Inverse folding.
């Protein structure tokens, strides 16, 4: 599905959305649940379509991590994670303790006691977004490790977040 995007009206007030707003939009047919968007501090960000290199790397990393992860850990693929009431991100891969995943009151995945252990973003055309704004958000929300994989260059940049 192609989404019509607009550029922000800088300097003008914009309506901020919440996770509950997003859920109601989907339930009422205003938004398609399959739309590739994230909610970043109340604003929708339209994500680029996934392409071959992206999916190839994602599937490879998923298989390697699943084979090597202890049984108390899970690997999620393209999971919508509600970090706050105004931020829902969809990392390509996410590694977390099985005990920590809960359903948010807006019916998204949420981590109640601890944050994910590892988030992986695979970037084809979103490298600046993933290694800039999203890296900052993951650090702010306490994610200890983020890998941003440049799919074109086959390079991973490791961001280590805040430590207790």
């Amino acid at each position: 599905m192609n989404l019509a995007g607009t550029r922000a009206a800088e300097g003008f007030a914009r309506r901020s959305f919440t996770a509950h707003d997003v859920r109601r939009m989907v339930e009422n047919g205003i938004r398609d649940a399959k739309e590739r968007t994230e909610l970043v501090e109340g604003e929708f960000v339209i994500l680029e379509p996934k392409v071959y290199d992206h999916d190839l790397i994602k599937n490879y990393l998923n298989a390697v991590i699943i084979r090597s992860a202890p049984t108390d850990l899970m690997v999620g693929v393209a999971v919508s994670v509600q970090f706050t009431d105004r931020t829902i991100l969809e990392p390509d891969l996410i590694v977390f303790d099985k005990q920590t995943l809960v359903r948010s009151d807006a019916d998204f995945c949420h981590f109640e006691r601890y944050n994910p252990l590892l988030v992986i973003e695979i970037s084809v055309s979103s490298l600046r977004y993933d290694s800039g704004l999203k890296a900052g958000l993951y650090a702010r929300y306490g994610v200890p490790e983020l890998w941003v994989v440049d799919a074109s260059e086959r390079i991973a940049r490791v961001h280590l977040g805040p430590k207790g």
